[in-house]
Amino acid sequence: MQDLRVLDDAHAAAARKEVYRVTIILSILTIVELALGYSMVNMSEQSFSRHLIKGIILILMLAKAFYIVAYFMHLKHELRNMIMTIVLPLGLFIWFIIAFLADGNSFRELRNKYAPYDQESNIPVKQNQHNEQEKGTIELKKAVE
User: Fold this and answer.
1) Which ranges of the chain does DSSP label H, i.e. alpha helix?
2) Which of 30, 26, 50 is nearest to 40 (CA)?
3) pLDDT at 57
4) What's the Rg (C-alpha) of the chain?
5) DSSP state, residue 77
6) CA 47 to CA 35: how far, in whole Å?
7) What does the alpha-carbon distance between residue 128 and residue 145 come to, in Å, rounded to a whole number?
8) By the 8 A CB rule, do 38 and 18 touch?
9) What is the pTM of this model?
10) Which of 10, 20, 26, 135 has its CA 20 to 30 A from that of 64?
11) What CA–CA distance (Å, rounded) separates 27 from 32?
12) Chain centroid offset of residue 54 CA
């Protein structure tokens, strides 16, 4: 009976060590992502380095997603078919989101850009003072009388 307890303690210690390792890895990835994100604050929108940092952050996010799915959803020790039943629909869902975002952006870009009321509304209009009449109004009243 004592031998079983030793095996259970050894297994628990190994599992605990693995959880600590994954938690430390996720924490380090998160801190690196935050540091990279804060470093982008003063960069111009179209600079190459900003796009490079965004790409690095995306790669780090995918690594975090892998660790979360593998360890906290307990898929690391599952059969390949079981993993595919979860990962394949997840991939299709991500593709679905990307397709709808691209379609929405395409619709926004293909809309008719000519809107005459937008152009006319940008013309400044002279504001009259209170109780001031325009010249044409006075002449019209005289002609009617």
Assistant:
1) 2-39, 48-67, 80-110, 116-121, 135-144
2) 50
3) 94
4) 32
5) T
6) 18
7) 25
8) no
9) 0.54
10) 10
11) 9
12) 11
